[in-house]
Design brief:
- The structure holds two protein chains of two kinds.
- Chain A is built from 13 helices and two strands; from the N terminus they run ααααααααααββααα.
- Chain A is mainly α.
- Chain A has a single domain, classed as Amino acid/polyamine transporter I (Up-down Bundle), CATH 1.20.1740.
- In chain A, 53% of the residues are buried.
- By secondary structure, chain B is mainly alpha-helical.
- Chain B has a domain of 54 residues.
- Classes of the chains: A mainly alpha, B mainly alpha.
- The interface between A and B is large, with 41 and 41 residues.
- Chain B: Keywords: Membrane, Transmembrane, Transmembrane helix.
Chain lengths: 361, 80
Protein backbone atom coordinates (compact mmCIF):
# COMPACT_ATOMS: atom_id res chain seq x y z
CA UNK A 1 0.00 0.00 0.00
CA UNK A 2 1.15 3.48 -0.87
CA UNK A 3 0.52 5.06 2.53
CA UNK A 4 2.11 3.51 5.58
CA UNK A 5 0.76 5.88 8.20
CA UNK A 6 -2.39 5.21 10.19
CA UNK A 7 -4.83 7.58 11.83
CA UNK A 8 -7.45 7.03 14.51
CA UNK A 9 -11.17 7.38 13.88
CA UNK A 10 -11.38 10.48 16.06
CA UNK A 11 -8.60 12.08 14.01
CA UNK A 12 -10.63 11.34 10.90
CA UNK A 13 -13.60 13.14 12.42
CA UNK A 14 -11.42 16.15 13.23
CA UNK A 15 -9.93 16.12 9.73
CA UNK A 16 -13.41 16.19 8.21
CA UNK A 17 -14.58 18.98 10.50
CA UNK A 18 -11.53 21.09 9.77
CA UNK A 19 -11.76 20.30 6.07
CA UNK A 20 -15.30 21.59 5.73
CA UNK A 21 -15.94 24.34 8.29
CA UNK A 22 -13.31 27.06 7.55
CA UNK A 23 -14.44 28.30 4.14
CA UNK A 24 -18.11 27.72 4.88
CA UNK A 25 -17.90 29.79 8.07
CA UNK A 26 -16.56 32.67 6.01
CA UNK A 27 -18.98 32.87 3.12
CA UNK A 28 -22.20 30.96 3.94
CA UNK A 29 -24.03 33.63 5.97
CA UNK A 30 -23.98 36.03 3.02
CA UNK A 31 -24.85 33.45 0.36
CA UNK A 32 -27.58 31.76 2.41
CA UNK A 33 -29.11 35.08 3.42
CA UNK A 34 -29.80 35.93 -0.22
CA UNK A 35 -32.27 33.08 -0.48
CA UNK A 36 -33.38 32.23 3.04
CA UNK A 37 -33.49 35.69 4.71
CA UNK A 38 -34.23 35.32 8.44
CA UNK A 39 -34.48 31.52 8.12
CA UNK A 40 -30.79 31.20 7.22
CA UNK A 41 -29.94 29.51 10.49
CA UNK A 42 -32.28 26.65 9.55
CA UNK A 43 -30.60 26.02 6.21
CA UNK A 44 -27.66 23.93 7.53
CA UNK A 45 -30.21 21.43 8.84
CA UNK A 46 -31.04 20.48 5.25
CA UNK A 47 -27.70 18.73 4.86
CA UNK A 48 -29.18 16.16 2.52
CA UNK A 49 -26.09 15.60 0.43
CA UNK A 50 -24.06 15.21 3.63
CA UNK A 51 -26.25 12.37 4.84
CA UNK A 52 -26.27 10.69 1.42
CA UNK A 53 -22.49 10.99 1.09
CA UNK A 54 -21.82 9.58 4.55
CA UNK A 55 -24.20 6.69 3.82
CA UNK A 56 -22.47 5.92 0.48
CA UNK A 57 -18.98 6.16 1.98
CA UNK A 58 -19.84 3.81 4.84
CA UNK A 59 -21.61 1.28 2.60
CA UNK A 60 -18.72 1.17 0.14
CA UNK A 61 -16.26 1.00 3.01
CA UNK A 62 -18.04 -2.04 4.41
CA UNK A 63 -17.73 -3.84 1.07
CA UNK A 64 -14.18 -2.76 0.20
CA UNK A 65 -12.43 -1.76 3.45
CA UNK A 66 -9.02 -1.15 1.89
CA UNK A 67 -9.95 0.97 -1.13
CA UNK A 68 -11.30 4.45 -1.79
CA UNK A 69 -14.10 5.20 -4.23
CA UNK A 70 -11.79 6.18 -7.07
CA UNK A 71 -9.93 2.86 -6.89
CA UNK A 72 -13.27 1.06 -6.96
CA UNK A 73 -14.38 3.13 -9.97
CA UNK A 74 -11.17 2.19 -11.72
CA UNK A 75 -11.78 -1.46 -10.95
CA UNK A 76 -15.42 -1.44 -12.05
CA UNK A 77 -14.71 0.61 -15.20
CA UNK A 78 -11.93 -1.76 -16.32
CA UNK A 79 -8.77 -0.35 -17.85
CA UNK A 80 -9.39 2.58 -20.15
CA UNK A 81 -12.82 3.90 -19.04
CA UNK A 82 -11.73 3.51 -15.40
CA UNK A 83 -8.54 5.50 -16.01
CA UNK A 84 -10.51 8.24 -17.78
CA UNK A 85 -13.03 8.55 -14.93
CA UNK A 86 -10.38 8.63 -12.25
CA UNK A 87 -8.38 11.14 -14.30
CA UNK A 88 -11.42 13.42 -14.42
CA UNK A 89 -11.79 13.04 -10.66
CA UNK A 90 -8.13 13.89 -10.17
CA UNK A 91 -8.49 17.09 -12.17
CA UNK A 92 -11.73 17.97 -10.43
CA UNK A 93 -10.26 17.58 -6.93
CA UNK A 94 -7.28 19.67 -8.04
CA UNK A 95 -9.73 22.28 -9.32
CA UNK A 96 -11.73 22.30 -6.06
CA UNK A 97 -8.51 22.75 -4.13
CA UNK A 98 -7.56 25.58 -6.48
CA UNK A 99 -10.86 27.27 -5.64
CA UNK A 100 -10.13 26.85 -1.91
CA UNK A 101 -6.63 28.34 -2.21
CA UNK A 102 -8.09 31.22 -4.19
CA UNK A 103 -10.82 31.87 -1.60
CA UNK A 104 -8.20 31.88 1.14
CA UNK A 105 -5.93 34.37 -0.58
CA UNK A 106 -8.76 36.59 -1.85
CA UNK A 107 -9.94 36.96 1.73
CA UNK A 108 -6.48 37.71 3.09
CA UNK A 109 -5.80 40.26 0.36
CA UNK A 110 -9.15 42.01 0.54
CA UNK A 111 -9.34 42.22 4.34
CA UNK A 112 -5.80 42.39 5.67
CA UNK A 113 -2.85 42.59 3.28
CA UNK A 114 -4.18 44.97 0.68
CA UNK A 115 -1.02 45.58 -1.33
CA UNK A 116 0.48 42.08 -1.39
CA UNK A 117 0.22 40.28 -4.76
CA UNK A 118 -2.23 37.42 -4.50
CA UNK A 119 0.23 34.95 -6.01
CA UNK A 120 2.63 35.47 -3.10
CA UNK A 121 -0.03 34.67 -0.49
CA UNK A 122 -1.30 31.57 -2.31
CA UNK A 123 2.26 30.49 -3.07
CA UNK A 124 3.40 30.64 0.54
CA UNK A 125 0.33 28.75 1.73
CA UNK A 126 0.80 26.05 -0.91
CA UNK A 127 4.48 25.75 0.05
CA UNK A 128 3.67 25.25 3.75
CA UNK A 129 0.94 22.76 2.88
CA UNK A 130 3.32 20.91 0.55
CA UNK A 131 5.76 20.44 3.43
CA UNK A 132 2.98 19.07 5.64
CA UNK A 133 1.62 16.78 2.93
CA UNK A 134 5.09 15.47 2.15
CA UNK A 135 5.27 14.39 5.79
CA UNK A 136 2.38 12.06 5.16
CA UNK A 137 -1.06 11.20 6.41
CA UNK A 138 -0.18 11.15 10.10
CA UNK A 139 1.13 14.71 9.97
CA UNK A 140 -2.07 15.94 8.34
CA UNK A 141 -4.13 14.08 10.95
CA UNK A 142 -2.10 15.54 13.80
CA UNK A 143 -2.39 19.06 12.47
CA UNK A 144 -6.16 18.67 12.41
CA UNK A 145 -6.09 17.32 15.96
CA UNK A 146 -3.77 20.09 17.14
CA UNK A 147 -5.65 22.98 15.57
CA UNK A 148 -9.23 21.93 16.28
CA UNK A 149 -9.26 23.05 19.98
CA UNK A 150 -7.67 26.40 19.05
CA UNK A 151 -10.15 26.79 16.25
CA UNK A 152 -13.18 26.12 18.45
CA UNK A 153 -11.90 28.31 21.31
CA UNK A 154 -11.37 31.25 19.00
CA UNK A 155 -14.72 30.62 17.32
CA UNK A 156 -16.46 30.81 20.72
CA UNK A 157 -14.36 33.85 21.59
CA UNK A 158 -15.86 35.52 18.55
CA UNK A 159 -19.42 34.67 19.56
CA UNK A 160 -19.59 34.96 23.36
CA UNK A 161 -18.66 38.67 23.75
CA UNK A 162 -21.45 39.75 21.43
CA UNK A 163 -24.21 37.70 23.08
CA UNK A 164 -25.40 40.76 25.04
CA UNK A 165 -25.85 42.75 21.84
CA UNK A 166 -27.85 40.18 19.93
CA UNK A 167 -31.30 41.30 18.88
CA UNK A 168 -33.59 38.34 19.10
CA UNK A 169 -36.35 40.17 17.23
CA UNK A 170 -34.30 39.67 14.02
CA UNK A 171 -35.19 36.01 14.25
CA UNK A 172 -38.89 36.50 13.57
CA UNK A 173 -40.96 35.55 11.67
CA UNK A 174 -39.64 31.98 11.68
CA UNK A 175 -40.97 30.21 8.57
CA UNK A 176 -42.55 33.52 7.52
CA UNK A 177 -42.90 32.31 3.94
CA UNK A 178 -43.14 28.64 4.73
CA UNK A 179 -40.37 26.09 4.71
CA UNK A 180 -39.23 26.84 1.16
CA UNK A 181 -36.77 29.76 1.68
CA UNK A 182 -34.65 27.76 4.11
CA UNK A 183 -34.45 24.86 1.64
CA UNK A 184 -33.51 27.18 -1.22
CA UNK A 185 -30.81 28.70 0.99
CA UNK A 186 -29.50 25.22 1.67
CA UNK A 187 -28.72 24.63 -2.00
CA UNK A 188 -25.31 26.32 -1.95
CA UNK A 189 -24.49 24.66 1.38
CA UNK A 190 -24.55 21.30 -0.41
CA UNK A 191 -21.13 22.26 -1.82
CA UNK A 192 -19.65 21.88 1.63
CA UNK A 193 -21.71 18.93 2.77
CA UNK A 194 -20.81 16.95 -0.34
CA UNK A 195 -17.15 17.40 0.63
CA UNK A 196 -17.79 14.66 3.21
CA UNK A 197 -16.77 12.33 0.37
CA UNK A 198 -13.11 12.89 1.30
CA UNK A 199 -13.77 10.54 4.22
CA UNK A 200 -13.58 7.76 1.64
CA UNK A 201 -9.91 8.53 0.99
CA UNK A 202 -8.98 8.43 4.67
CA UNK A 203 -11.09 5.48 5.85
CA UNK A 204 -8.74 2.79 4.48
CA UNK A 205 -6.01 4.15 6.78
CA UNK A 206 -8.14 4.31 9.93
CA UNK A 207 -6.82 1.95 12.59
CA UNK A 208 -9.94 1.49 14.76
CA UNK A 209 -12.44 1.05 11.94
CA UNK A 210 -15.36 -0.01 14.13
CA UNK A 211 -15.61 3.62 15.28
CA UNK A 212 -15.85 4.95 11.71
CA UNK A 213 -19.63 5.18 11.57
CA UNK A 214 -19.87 7.01 14.88
CA UNK A 215 -17.13 9.49 14.07
CA UNK A 216 -18.52 10.33 10.62
CA UNK A 217 -22.02 11.02 11.88
CA UNK A 218 -20.63 13.02 14.79
CA UNK A 219 -18.55 15.27 12.61
CA UNK A 220 -21.45 15.82 10.20
CA UNK A 221 -23.61 16.83 13.17
CA UNK A 222 -20.88 19.12 14.52
CA UNK A 223 -20.60 20.80 11.12
CA UNK A 224 -24.35 21.38 10.97
CA UNK A 225 -24.42 22.85 14.48
CA UNK A 226 -21.40 25.11 13.88
CA UNK A 227 -22.84 26.48 10.65
CA UNK A 228 -26.21 27.00 12.28
CA UNK A 229 -24.66 28.85 15.23
CA UNK A 230 -22.50 31.08 13.05
CA UNK A 231 -25.44 31.89 10.75
CA UNK A 232 -27.65 32.60 13.75
CA UNK A 233 -25.07 34.86 15.41
CA UNK A 234 -24.58 36.80 12.19
CA UNK A 235 -28.31 37.19 11.68
CA UNK A 236 -29.01 38.28 15.24
CA UNK A 237 -26.26 40.88 15.20
CA UNK A 238 -26.54 42.26 11.69
CA UNK A 239 -30.15 41.55 10.77
CA UNK A 240 -31.01 42.79 7.29
CA UNK A 241 -27.41 43.93 6.75
CA UNK A 242 -26.11 40.35 6.58
CA UNK A 243 -26.49 40.26 2.81
CA UNK A 244 -24.54 43.49 2.31
CA UNK A 245 -21.19 42.13 3.43
CA UNK A 246 -19.22 39.51 1.55
CA UNK A 247 -17.67 38.21 4.81
CA UNK A 248 -20.31 38.81 7.52
CA UNK A 249 -18.56 36.70 10.14
CA UNK A 250 -15.57 39.03 10.00
CA UNK A 251 -17.90 41.91 10.88
CA UNK A 252 -18.79 40.03 14.07
CA UNK A 253 -15.14 39.94 15.06
CA UNK A 254 -14.76 43.64 14.25
CA UNK A 255 -17.83 44.46 16.32
CA UNK A 256 -16.45 43.05 19.57
CA UNK A 257 -15.60 45.81 22.01
CA UNK A 258 -15.12 44.94 25.67
CA UNK A 259 -15.20 48.14 27.76
CA UNK A 260 -13.29 50.07 25.07
CA UNK A 261 -10.23 48.09 26.04
CA UNK A 262 -10.35 44.92 23.97
CA UNK A 263 -11.27 45.61 20.39
CA UNK A 264 -10.11 45.06 16.81
CA UNK A 265 -10.42 41.36 17.31
CA UNK A 266 -10.45 40.67 13.60
CA UNK A 267 -6.91 39.47 14.07
CA UNK A 268 -8.41 36.57 16.02
CA UNK A 269 -10.57 35.80 13.05
CA UNK A 270 -7.46 35.93 10.91
CA UNK A 271 -5.92 33.21 13.11
CA UNK A 272 -9.04 31.07 12.73
CA UNK A 273 -8.95 31.60 9.01
CA UNK A 274 -5.28 30.81 8.44
CA UNK A 275 -5.33 27.73 10.69
CA UNK A 276 -8.55 26.45 9.18
CA UNK A 277 -7.57 27.13 5.61
CA UNK A 278 -4.20 25.49 6.21
CA UNK A 279 -5.78 22.22 7.35
CA UNK A 280 -8.44 22.39 4.66
CA UNK A 281 -5.92 22.92 1.86
CA UNK A 282 -3.66 20.21 3.33
CA UNK A 283 -6.50 17.68 3.36
CA UNK A 284 -7.52 18.31 -0.23
CA UNK A 285 -3.88 18.51 -1.31
CA UNK A 286 -3.22 15.15 0.33
CA UNK A 287 -6.24 13.62 -1.43
CA UNK A 288 -5.03 15.03 -4.77
CA UNK A 289 -1.54 13.61 -4.25
CA UNK A 290 -2.88 10.23 -3.15
CA UNK A 291 -5.26 9.96 -6.10
CA UNK A 292 -2.55 11.08 -8.54
CA UNK A 293 -0.07 8.53 -7.18
CA UNK A 294 -2.65 5.75 -7.39
CA UNK A 295 -3.65 6.87 -10.85
CA UNK A 296 -0.08 6.64 -12.09
CA UNK A 297 0.56 3.50 -10.02
CA UNK A 298 3.53 4.97 -8.16
CA UNK A 299 5.10 3.21 -5.20
CA UNK A 300 5.66 6.46 -3.32
CA UNK A 301 3.72 9.69 -3.50
CA UNK A 302 6.37 11.99 -2.04
CA UNK A 303 8.16 12.89 -5.30
CA UNK A 304 5.01 14.32 -6.90
CA UNK A 305 4.01 16.55 -3.96
CA UNK A 306 5.91 19.65 -5.10
CA UNK A 307 5.03 19.39 -8.82
CA UNK A 308 1.36 19.03 -7.89
CA UNK A 309 1.79 22.05 -5.61
CA UNK A 310 2.94 24.08 -8.60
CA UNK A 311 -0.12 22.91 -10.54
CA UNK A 312 -2.33 23.72 -7.55
CA UNK A 313 -0.93 27.24 -7.38
CA UNK A 314 -1.53 27.72 -11.09
CA UNK A 315 -5.07 26.37 -10.84
CA UNK A 316 -5.78 28.81 -8.02
CA UNK A 317 -4.87 31.63 -10.40
CA UNK A 318 -6.72 30.06 -13.29
CA UNK A 319 -10.12 29.38 -11.70
CA UNK A 320 -11.44 32.92 -11.91
CA UNK A 321 -10.28 36.41 -12.91
CA UNK A 322 -11.72 38.04 -9.74
CA UNK A 323 -13.75 37.45 -6.57
CA UNK A 324 -17.13 38.29 -8.09
CA UNK A 325 -16.79 35.68 -10.81
CA UNK A 326 -15.59 33.15 -8.25
CA UNK A 327 -18.49 33.73 -5.84
CA UNK A 328 -20.99 33.58 -8.68
CA UNK A 329 -19.49 30.33 -9.95
CA UNK A 330 -19.60 28.79 -6.46
CA UNK A 331 -23.26 29.75 -6.07
CA UNK A 332 -24.21 28.04 -9.34
CA UNK A 333 -22.24 25.70 -11.61
CA UNK A 334 -19.57 24.67 -9.09
CA UNK A 335 -22.20 23.56 -6.58
CA UNK A 336 -23.90 21.50 -9.28
CA UNK A 337 -20.59 20.01 -10.39
CA UNK A 338 -19.72 19.07 -6.82
CA UNK A 339 -23.12 17.48 -6.25
CA UNK A 340 -22.66 15.47 -9.46
CA UNK A 341 -19.09 14.40 -8.77
CA UNK A 342 -19.31 13.84 -5.02
CA UNK A 343 -22.91 12.66 -4.53
CA UNK A 344 -24.63 11.45 -7.71
CA UNK A 345 -21.78 9.50 -9.32
CA UNK A 346 -20.77 7.80 -6.03
CA UNK A 347 -24.46 6.90 -5.52
CA UNK A 348 -24.52 5.31 -8.98
CA UNK A 349 -21.27 3.54 -8.13
CA UNK A 350 -22.84 2.12 -4.98
CA UNK A 351 -25.79 0.81 -7.01
CA UNK A 352 -23.46 -0.79 -9.57
CA UNK A 353 -21.28 -2.39 -6.89
CA UNK A 354 -24.37 -3.68 -5.14
CA UNK A 355 -25.79 -5.21 -8.37
CA UNK A 356 -22.42 -6.74 -9.32
CA UNK A 357 -22.11 -8.34 -5.88
CA UNK A 358 -25.65 -9.69 -6.12
CA UNK A 359 -24.95 -11.23 -9.54
CA UNK A 360 -21.81 -12.90 -8.26
CA UNK A 361 -23.66 -14.58 -5.44
CA UNK B 1 6.46 42.63 -14.10
CA UNK B 2 6.00 39.78 -16.53
CA UNK B 3 9.69 39.02 -16.86
CA UNK B 4 10.04 38.84 -13.05
CA UNK B 5 7.22 36.28 -12.94
CA UNK B 6 8.75 34.36 -15.83
CA UNK B 7 12.10 34.36 -14.06
CA UNK B 8 10.50 33.22 -10.78
CA UNK B 9 8.87 30.25 -12.53
CA UNK B 10 12.31 29.13 -13.76
CA UNK B 11 13.80 29.55 -10.26
CA UNK B 12 10.97 27.60 -8.60
CA UNK B 13 11.20 24.76 -11.11
CA UNK B 14 14.99 24.52 -10.81
CA UNK B 15 14.79 24.48 -7.00
CA UNK B 16 12.07 21.83 -7.11
CA UNK B 17 14.07 19.60 -9.44
CA UNK B 18 17.29 20.00 -7.42
CA UNK B 19 15.56 19.19 -4.11
CA UNK B 20 13.50 16.26 -5.32
CA UNK B 21 15.88 14.64 -7.79
CA UNK B 22 18.56 13.60 -5.30
CA UNK B 23 15.93 12.14 -2.97
CA UNK B 24 14.75 9.66 -5.59
CA UNK B 25 16.76 6.48 -5.79
CA UNK B 26 17.82 4.81 -9.02
CA UNK B 27 15.05 2.21 -8.98
CA UNK B 28 12.27 4.79 -8.95
CA UNK B 29 11.94 5.04 -12.75
CA UNK B 30 8.16 5.42 -12.69
CA UNK B 31 8.31 8.16 -10.10
CA UNK B 32 10.93 10.02 -12.09
CA UNK B 33 8.80 9.89 -15.24
CA UNK B 34 5.72 11.08 -13.33
CA UNK B 35 7.76 13.87 -11.75
CA UNK B 36 9.09 15.08 -15.11
CA UNK B 37 5.67 14.94 -16.77
CA UNK B 38 4.05 16.92 -13.94
CA UNK B 39 6.83 19.52 -13.88
CA UNK B 40 6.67 20.00 -17.65
CA UNK B 41 2.88 20.37 -17.64
CA UNK B 42 3.24 22.84 -14.76
CA UNK B 43 5.78 24.92 -16.69
CA UNK B 44 3.62 24.91 -19.83
CA UNK B 45 0.53 25.98 -17.84
CA UNK B 46 2.54 28.65 -16.01
CA UNK B 47 3.81 30.30 -19.18
CA UNK B 48 0.40 29.93 -20.82
CA UNK B 49 -1.23 31.80 -17.95
CA UNK B 50 1.58 34.35 -17.89
CA UNK B 51 1.45 35.18 -21.60
CA UNK B 52 -2.31 34.81 -22.14
CA UNK B 53 -4.01 35.65 -18.82
CA UNK B 54 -7.46 35.51 -20.43
CA UNK B 55 -7.20 31.90 -21.58
CA UNK B 56 -10.53 30.14 -20.79
CA UNK B 57 -10.30 28.22 -17.52
CA UNK B 58 -11.93 25.19 -15.93
CA UNK B 59 -14.67 27.38 -14.44
CA UNK B 60 -15.87 28.33 -17.92
CA UNK B 61 -15.93 24.63 -18.87
CA UNK B 62 -18.01 23.71 -15.82
CA UNK B 63 -20.23 26.71 -16.44
CA UNK B 64 -20.83 25.64 -20.06
CA UNK B 65 -21.56 22.03 -19.07
CA UNK B 66 -24.09 22.99 -16.40
CA UNK B 67 -25.64 25.97 -18.18
CA UNK B 68 -29.01 24.23 -18.93
CA UNK B 69 -29.43 22.96 -15.35
CA UNK B 70 -28.35 26.30 -13.88
CA UNK B 71 -31.05 28.04 -15.92
CA UNK B 72 -33.74 25.61 -14.72
CA UNK B 73 -32.61 26.05 -11.11
CA UNK B 74 -32.63 29.82 -11.44
CA UNK B 75 -36.29 29.70 -12.40
CA UNK B 76 -37.02 27.67 -9.25
CA UNK B 77 -34.82 29.45 -6.76
CA UNK B 78 -35.37 33.16 -6.41
CA UNK B 79 -33.46 35.75 -4.46
CA UNK B 80 -35.72 37.37 -1.97
Amino acid sequence: MIEKGRISASQLGKILYMAIIPTSLLTTPAITFKYAKQDLWLSPIWAISGFITVFIVLRIYRMYPSENIIQIMERIGRRIPGKIISGIYLLFILYVNGVIVREYSEFVVSSFLHTTPIVVISGLMVLVCAMAVRGGLEIVGRFAELFLPIFITLFLFNIIPIIADLQWSNLFPIFGEGIRPSIEGAFVLQTWFSEMIIASFFLPFVADHHNAKKTLSRSLLAIMVTLSVSNLATLLLLGELTGNYSYPFLILARYINISNFINHLESLYMIIWVLGAFVKICVFYYVTVLVAAQWMKLSNYQPIVYPLGLLLLLFSQWVAPNTQVLTEAIAGPVTLAMITMFVIIPALLLCIVWIVNRLHN
Amino acid sequence: MKWIAGFMIVVIVILMVIIEWQKMSRQMKREKTAFIVLVISGVILAYLLLLFPDVPGPTQLIDAVYRPITNILKSWITER
